[in-house]
Amino acid sequence: VVSLKGKDFLTLMDISTEDIHYLLTLAAQLKEKQLVGQSYTPLVGKTLAMIFEKPSTRTRVSFEVGMIQLGGSALYLNSNDLQLGRGETIADTARVLSQYVDAIMIRTFAHSKIEELAQYATIPVINGLTDDDHPCQALADLLTIYEVKKMFKGLKLAYVGDGNNVAHALMIAAAKVGMDCTIACPSGYEPKEEYVNAAVQIGKQSGATIAVTHDPIEAVADADVIYTDVWTSMGQEQESEQRLTVFQPFQVNDELLKHAKPDYMFLHCLPAHRGEEVAADVIDGPNSYVFQQAGNRLHVQKAILVSLL
Ligand code: CP
Ligand code: NVA
């Protein structure tokens, strides 16, 4: 799609529904190519810089492998090894890297940092997770839901847990494709108003109902997709003890899932903590698609890379 070429990929709020469907279709095609062993190398000579200020397994490996499979290369840059870690500004880093590489993927803390990077970079900037958003994850989640349920409209997605990055991205993703979405979180852990308001507005166009509740049963009632994420996100480690208590009623377990549709699918962005946000028999059970979901990160990100570069 012409409209994605050269663009940043910071949040799904900026990506049209048409472009989301285009990316999902392209990801499915790239997945098929890989399954049959057909090589596709449109990014020969292209380099992706990957800056990580937080740990990562899926995002790091899938972006790096994705670039290699598309014929390009990727640089893993730990922020502590960059001058960024010694106080060089984001703006200067952006202006320098823009002359060496073709795109920058960054995982960082404050969302404002990625916006600043994108402002000063003359090349596409991709969000590999901020405190507020995780658009690549949400796109992989949509692909997985579509593979299993073959539709979006008419489905209900229930996210049970912390209303932060993954929940934000999912609400927007669901709203864009017309899927109903309810977030259930403890009081004080709601998604940001900016994301809720945006999702509600987008949902008005697409026909999706977006809701936030403090009642996990209400969220899960008749849901087709149940999603959760860790109770303590990266950077919040000092709050983990308190979070363990506050989030206890929000554990996704068989008791809660009695309220879901019998053919519900369970998703989790991973990494997971069995016995905390999800019971082991749920994440390891027959309704869990978490590894198909993790696998889809690769295909979705290849679609993003091909479209932006
Ligand atoms: N889901 C996800 O982004 O995983 P990583 O933290 O391993 O990249
Ligand atoms: N909410 C989690 C997601 C990890 C992929 C975190 O921010 O740590």
From TrEMBL:
Residues 7-147 form the Aspartate/ornithine carbamoyltransferase carbamoyl-P binding domain. Its EC number is 2.1.3.3. PROSITE patterns: CARBAMOYLTRANSFERASE. GO terms for molecular function: amino acid binding; ornithine carbamoyltransferase activity. It is an enzyme of class 2 (transferase). Pfam families: OTCace (PF00185), OTCace_N (PF02729). It catalyses: carbamoyl phosphate + L-ornithine = L-citrulline + phosphate + H(+). Pathway: Amino-acid biosynthesis; L-arginine biosynthesis; L-arginine from L-ornithine and carbamoyl phosphate: step 1/3. The keyword Cytoplasm applies. GO terms for cellular component: cytoplasm. SUPFAM superfamilies: Aspartate/ornithine carbamoyltransferase. Carbamoyl phosphate binds at residues 56-59, 83, 107, 134-137, 269-270, 297. Keywords: Cytoplasm, Transferase. Residues 153-307 form the Aspartate/ornithine carbamoyltransferase Asp/Orn-binding domain. GO terms for biological process: citrulline biosynthetic process; L-arginine biosynthetic process via ornithine. Gene3D superfamilies: Aspartate/ornithine carbamoyltransferase. L-ornithine binds at residues 165, 229, 233-234. Its main location: cytoplasm. PANTHER family: ORNITHINE CARBAMOYLTRANSFERASE, MITOCHONDRIAL (PTHR45753), ORNITHINE TRANSCARBAMYLASE, MITOCHONDRIAL (PTHR45753:SF3). Reversibly catalyzes the transfer of the carbamoyl group from carbamoyl phosphate (CP) to the N(epsilon) atom of ornithine (ORN) to produce L-citrulline. This is Ornithine carbamoyltransferase. It comes from Saccharococcus thermophilus. The lineage of its organism: Bacteria, Bacillati, Bacillota, Bacilli, Bacillales.
